[in-house]
Write a structure and sequence with these properties.
The protein is mostly helical and 273 residues long. Helix content is 72%, strand content 0%. The chain has one domain.
């Protein structure tokens, strides 16, 4: 599942090259920092896109945030055609085995292990991965239910309002109504499409190597749009086989994609920041 989450991040680095190549078109002048901030749209992770854009290309923050959240909302429209194009009917019908039961100790150890490894190997990504791990630990520990409930409801609603206001303040006409904004929207779509395709192709390879035990559709959930991408995988799977419930299987690469996009952002920030 980690491999699927990593494969879906290929769109980020392919789009970084595409953004630099777009400089050959008159009217576009993207620096390497601009290109990296635009490329992270392919991770389909809004907070990560905003975080990286604020660090590398603050002047493009509004356009990047709008593109990232727009394509996250368009997951049910963008992904199914790519998934069906790259898989056969028989592959989409593959039923996966029931997942094993995960112990409470494993659930608590997981965020601590992930955070520790991130601090050691990729400190630049620690703020992103750290917030993911904190929420996970609060929920799974079972000893701070009040704080966990607040974080999942009241706090996230307040943060969402302020986030919307902050991003909106960056959308002044002289910053947003430019040719570069159109390029960002196009590159964002390309990044998202490539990420979906590489995730599916990696899952196809894993399916072949496992003797048909893995449904290639779950590779599309490697992008970080949680849980929408996993729901789309489940929906497309049910269209081919009404007894094929892939939701929980798809959540594996979906969460791996969240970590993958944060790591990719950390790498870009460490290299270009």
């Amino acid at each position: 599942m980690l491999l699927l989450g990593a494969a879906a991040q290929f769109g980020i680095f392919a789009t970084l090259i595409g953004a630099i190549a777009l400089n050959a078109v008159p009217g576009f002048e993207f620096t390497m920092q601009d290109a990296a901030a635009i490329a992270i749209i392919g991770g389909a992770d809004g907070p990560t896109a905003i975080f990286l854009a604020s660090k590398l290309a603050p002047e493009l923050l509004g356009a990047i945030a709008v593109a990232a959240y727009s394509y996250m909302a368009l997951v049910p429209i963008i992904q199914p055609p790519i998934m069906k194009l790259l898989t056969t009917e028989s592959e989409r019908q593959i039923k996966m085995e029931q997942l094993r039961e995960v112990s409470k100790k494993e659930k608590i150890f997981f965020p601590l292990m992930v955070l520790g490894l991130t601090i050691l190997f990729l400190p630049a990504a620690t703020p992103l991965v750290g917030m993911f791990c904190l929420g996970n630990l609060m929920r799974e520990s079972g000893v701070v239910d009040r704080l966990s409930s607040t974080a999942q409801n009241e706090l996230i609603n307040i943060v969402t309002i302020f986030l919307g206001l902050a991003v909106g303040s960056k959308l002044s006409a002289d910053k947003f109504l430019q040719l570069e904004t159109l390029g960002i929207l196009v590159l964002g779509a390309v990044a998202f499409g490539i990420g979906t395709a590489t995730g599916v192709l990696m899952a196809k390879l894993m399916s072949k190597l496992s003797g048909g035990k893995i449904n290639p559709l779950i590779g599309a959930a490697g992008v970080s749009a949680v849980p929408m991408a996993a729901r789309v995988v489940n929906k497309v799977g049910l269209e081919s086989n009404q007894q094929n419930f892939l939701l929980m299987h798809a959540m594996g690469p979906n969460v791996a994609g969240v970590l993958g996009s944060a790591v990719a952002a950390g790498v870009l920030l460490a290299v270009l920041g």
